[in-house]
Amino acid sequence: MKYFKVLLFILIGILAFQKTSYAQPEDEYNDLLFLLVDAKYDKLLYKSMGYIEDEETRRDPLPYLYTSMCYYEMAKLEEYDEEFPRAFKDAVKYCVKYRKKDKSGFYVEENAEYIDDLKRLTYEVADNYYQSGKVSKAKSYYKYLVGIDPSDWGSWLLKGVAESQLNMNAEAKISLETGLKGIESIESESVDDYWQGQLMLLKMGIISYSEYLKDNGKVREAKELMALGYEYLQDDNEYKIAYDDIMRA
Q: What range defines the domain where residue 216 resides?
């Protein structure tokens, strides 16, 4: 567990050098925005939780999003390690809760930079669990990814592969079918608007599921999937290497 904590700290530190904007419609929960900008995270957490527990505001998406942002910032700082050892995981969980409240995605575009950073870090945590054989833990983070962004088709494939390896066949079938149908519906022009994390997850989802298909004797299906993604990912070196490997199988 200590290894993953150190790794997570490094990854958050890398993204800390990138500018993350927190934009909201004018006058909506500006009290929370000001506390976030002023780095008053203890007060922000107390106040955002107050909105979440209040009957009149508990259905509003933004308090959940601000709570996620608050935990994310706390996860970068050693001073919160003892009191909030699960700060990053809580940032992810509250972003999922936010997305459930914001079903239409009304606030997504204005907060895309933050959400994309969080998704990339979440994938890194999941992948490290996966590579170390802790597939169940990896699956839980892949599940968070599709909760944060239900139209992230690559994450659906990653989740489905993990579920397949855990013999969660019914769940895997739903996840893989959802991911495949989503990818088939992509228009080439729309990929140009993808954020970095969204495109990366599309790539990793296609590669992961294609390799899983190949390893299970379904070479034709693996080649078809890699060919499907080639239109969008042909300029990515990692994808081209995986593509050539599977096409030679």
A: 142-249
